Automatic annotation (TrEMBL):
Pfam families: Aldo_ket_red. One of its GO terms (cellular component) is cytosol. This is Aldo/keto reductase. SUPFAM superfamilies: NAD(P)-linked oxidoreductase (SSF51430). InterPro entries: AKR, NAD(P)_OxRdtase_dom_sf, NADP_OxRdtase_dom. GO terms for molecular function: oxidoreductase activity. It comes from Pseudomonas xantholysinigenes. Residues 10-322 form the NADP-dependent oxidoreductase domain. The lineage of its organism: Bacteria, Pseudomonadati, Pseudomonadota, Gammaproteobacteria, Pseudomonadales.
Length: 336
């Protein structure tokens, strides 16, 4: 299915922070954030089992209960199975949820991109989300947790497992679309080169942002346009560092990133431009992009996201970024 026709509003909501990303988020704040997003016209919500070991899905499901199901688009992900077994606290401190989702549920998570695991993951997600259907299913982080070329064997498992199951479910009308939800470009490039099965699009997190977009511009974006698949941009604020946070790529931002960001901020100050507005509008300016999904657990941030889309940014701002080498000269930019 054409993602652009499915996701009508270019501004969606990324629900990773609802899984207690980096901090313990009060339940009332979760509900208030989703209420604010809904009031601002947001009708696309994305989550995943990995976010807080099911916590984000459960909270999003609770927050959307009572909303007319036909009025919003819902996506989640497969590739990680949430077990009933709890983690050993000592192992948790060393594991992948340390720092990122250390305040989430304590359930163990296993990677599994097989056909059976895909079906099980969908059933589990439907239960946590309190819904009878999913609109989009993304195959999650297929290259994220593996070293070197090890991810290629997991990609092959997904190609013969998850890819085929999701294609069948799309053909049967159980889901409307599927694709990869990743923060590396390599699996997207490989998928675009396949003859079959063909996805409807990709959720590309952090790889088409104001701070980092060069690699995606080379192959992913042109091929996406050529093949008619849509790109949903996740992580438009690069884990938060672009808008005043400490993290880039889910880790504390290093000096190189901070130095580049400060140069961007200096240009923004010179033109009286909000960097948040620049980040959102930059991502949406590419014709391959159908939606951008910033994540938040604060109602005020949801309101700021909406306002950022309407700020008029002078072309002189983008020209200065180009001249200083802060954005790729080939990257499309908004027209004032």
């Amino acid at each position: 299915m054409n993602l652009k026709s499915l996701i009508a509003n270019p501004l969606g909501h990324g629900a990773a922070p609802l899984g207690n990303m980096f901090r313990n988020v009060p339940e009332a704040e979760v509900q208030a954030t989703i209420d604010a997003a809904w009031a601002n016209g947001v009708r696309y919500y994305d989550t995943a089992p990995f976010y807080g070991a099911g916590l984000s899905e459960t909270r999003l499901g609770n927050a959307l209960v009572g909303r007319p199901r036909d009025e919003y688009v819902l996506s989640t992900k497969i590739g990680r199975i949430i077990l009933d077994e709890l983690e050993d606290p000592a192992a948790r401190e060393l594991g992948e949820k340390s720092g990122l989702f250390e305040h989430g549920n304590r359930n163990r998570i296993v990677n599994d991109y097989s056909a059976d695991a895909t079906l099980r993951s969908i059933e589990d997600s439907l239960r946590r989300l309190k819904t009878d259907r999913l609109d989009i299913v993304w195959i999650h982080d297929i290259a994220q947790d593996f070293y070197g070329d090890e991810w290629l064997s997991h990609f092959e498992t997904a190609r013969t497992g998850a890819f085929r199951v999701l294609s069948r479910l799309r053909e049967e009308g159980v889901i409307k679309a599927w694709g990869l939800g990743v923060n590396r470009v390599e699996p997207v490039e490989l998928t675009l080169d396949l003859d079959e099965p063909k996805p409807d699009g990709f959720l590309l997190a952090g790889r088409y942002s104001l701070l980092d977009h060069d690699r995606a511009l080379q192959r992913v974006m042109p091929q996406a346009i050529e093949q008619g698949v849509g790109i949903v941009v996740g992580g438009p604020y690069s884990s938060g560092v672009t808008v005043g946070g400490e993290h880039f790529e889910y880790q504390k931002a290093n000096a190189t990133v901070l130095a580049k960001l400060e140069r961007i901020r200096a240009v923004a100050r010179a033109h009286d431009v909000d960097v948040k507005a620049a980040a959102l509008q930059f991502a949406l300016a590419h014709p391959a992009v159908v939606s951008v999904i910033p994540g938040s657990t604060r109602p005020a941030h949801a309101n700021e996201d909406l306002a950022a889309l309407s700020q008029v940014i002078p072309m002189a701002f983008w020209n200065d970024l180009r001249q200083q080498g802060l954005i790729n000269a080939l990257a499309p930019v908004p027209t004032a």
